[in-house]
Amino acid sequence: MKKVIIVDDSIAVARQLETIINNSDDFNVVAQGRNGAEAIKLYLQEKPDIICMDMNMPVMDGLSALRSLRQTSPDVNVVMVTSLGGVGDKYTEALKLGARDVISKPFDAETVIKTLQKIA
Question: Please, is 23 exposed, middle or buried when counting C-beta atoms within 10 Å of its C-beta (0-12, 13-18, 19+)?
Answer without folding.
Answer: exposed
